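Hi Q.,

Before the meeting this afternoon, I wanted you to have the 4'-deoxy-4'-aminopyridoxal-5'-phosphate prediction in hand. No need to reply - just skim if you have a minute. The sequence and ligand are here:
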Amino acid sequence: MHGTFTDNDLSHVIDADKAHVWHHLVQHKPFESSDPRIIVEGKGMRVWDQNGKEWLDAVSGAVWTVNVGYGRESICKAVYDQMMKMCYFAQAAGSVPGALYAEKLIEKMPGMSRVYYCNSGSEANEKAFKMVRQIAHKKYGGKKTKILYRDRDYHGSTLAAMSAGGQDERNAQYGPFAPDFVRVPHCMEYRKHELGLEHLSGEAFGIAAANLIEEVILREGPDTVGALCLEPVTAGGGVIEAPEGYWPRVQEICKQYDVLLHIDEVVCGIGRTGTHWFGYQHYGIKPDFVTMAKGVASGYAAIACMVATEEVFDLFKDDPSDKMNYFRDISTFGGCTAGPAAALENMRIIEDENLLENCTAMGARMMSNLQALQEKHAVIGDVRGKGLFLGVELVSDRDSKEPVDETLAQKVVAECGNHGVIIGVTNRSVPGRNNTLCFSPALIATADDIDQITDAVDKALTTVFG
Ligand code: PMP
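Predicted structure with the ligand bound:
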């Protein structure tokens, strides 16, 4: 192994973990007869587990987070220096890295203006939802409180974020949810038959899928709808890029019905989709709110941002004599300076190492490798995504598009593990039908890394499906 872990340390850590840690998103019964995986060390694209086994991480910390890779000394140094100088003060006051990061971030987001710091993607989304509700009360006499969200999109694990959750597997058993969150249909061309739009394709399909949002607005009453919250490329719902024509029509609809557009960049933000800093920037849209988290500091510190336009900000400062006229919200750890200090250095690395360009180039390579696998393996129904953010949907029959049994998709993930590569599987929309392999390697990936990942997938598919 890379580090200096003795057998004694190791068995203690495993015992402590098994006795006391409640892991996220996994069932614990299997740990009665096997050990959980404990990741001990990471460098670049690779991590080492408790047994010294080396893994190529094709999902950036399992949930598309570590965009600049592991073991970045300069980020650790920036955080250390900032911690020694000034670790924390509530964000009612300002901080040096908070101001400098906000300035840098807004430079990358023409049209946006104000950064609200908090800790997680869920929390950033909650901030935007609260602002929409407050605007409804301030500007529309308590109307326009409804927030639309899309089937298959995910916006977080807190209860209001789950109320905006389009993934039924995640939501099951956690209701009742908050009122006035209303679901709109997905825009996934591969499964357009679910929308009754199988006769349309390309741009015509994209426009028709966006019109389904308009139908919901008209059904609910435009004077009741305050905002529409969308992922630029749906992540956990199956790595879904909207078709041509979708986004311009979405923008038009929001404008026509005075609906604020909230773009959730928690996964796509900070370069994940290549070329641009944010997913929405590929489509020329102008959001009112943009939320981001994971890649902001690549997991070196917990930081999330809710970014709003100056027009939104202005709504909260128009009457200083009104004691209720500001955003009455706080996030204690939004005042941690480790976050913006790490984020500033994270951004410098992405710029200096041309990682947006690398992401585009390596994303294209990975897409073409996966498309070649689609020619070879009948089980691959669809390959999709943008930049280094790709999905491979597995189906038992290409005509019916019936998802493969989830246990088979999980076997592919396990087989990739046998070849030393960590990949993910998702979908989350239908409980028990997770059939989409997902890939989000760090933006530093090389051609060799990409080929190693897709070779492992090739071998795994052969082992599982023949
Ligand atoms: N939005 C999206 C699109 C996400 O994928 C996630 C997390 N996977 C979240 C929000 C929630 O982020 P967090 O887990 O940091 O609360």
